[in-house]
Amino acid sequence: MIGRSTKGVTLVELIIAVTLLALLASAVLPFTRMTAKRTREIELHRNLRTIRTAIDDYKKAYDKAVEQKKIVATLQASGYPKTLELLVEGEDFGGLYGAKRKFLRRIPPDPMNPPQPGQPPQWGMRSYTDQPDAASWGKEDVFDVYSLSEGVAIDGSSYKDW
C-alpha cells in the first residue's frame, strides 16, 4: 500500500488532544472561581461604601437642620437614621429641603449573603451606642452596617469585619 494517503487523525492523537484540553480546563476553573469571588468582594466593598456614605449624609443633614433650628435636638436622638429603610423613604428635617430628601434609591444587597427572592436585603447593623464589634443591634439607630456572611475573603479577613 504504497502511495496511500491518510486524511484523518489516529486514536492516539485524539486521546492526546482531549487530555491536553482537559488539563487546560482544570487549570482555568480555579481561576474563574477566584475571579467570581473577587468580583463579589468588590461589589461588597462598593455596597458598604454606598450605605455608609448615605448614613453619613443623613447625619450631616440632621446636624444642619438642628443648626438652622428646623428641628430640635433631643438627648435620645443621635442624628443617625432609625432604620435603613428611612434612607430610601427620605426625611424632610423640619422643612430644611422643602421636600423629603432621599439618600438611597434602594438598599443594595449583600453579595456575600444574598437575600431570598422577594425578601429585602439583610445587613448586620450597629447603633451609635453599640460597641464597635457588637454582633447584635441596639435598635436605637443605624450607625454602621456590616455583612452577615461568615465567609473569609481572599486576603484572609472575615467579611463581617469589613
From TrEMBL:
* Membrane spanning residue stretches: 12-31
- For whether the record's keyword set contains Membrane, the answer is yes
Quote the Pfam families the UniProt record gives. Answer: N_methyl
Q: Where is the composition biased (Pro residues)?
A: 109-120
Which source organism does the UniProt entry give? Trichlorobacter lovleyi (strain ATCC BAA-1151 / DSM 17278 / SZ) (Geobacter lovleyi)
Q: What is this protein called?
A: General secretion pathway protein GspG
The keyword Amino-acid biosynthesis belongs to this UniProt entry's keyword annotation: no
> Which residue intervals make up region (Disordered)?
107-135
Signal peptide range: none
Show the PROSITE patterns listed in the entry. PROKAR_NTER_METHYL
Recite the UniProt keywords alphabetically. Membrane, Transmembrane, Transmembrane helix
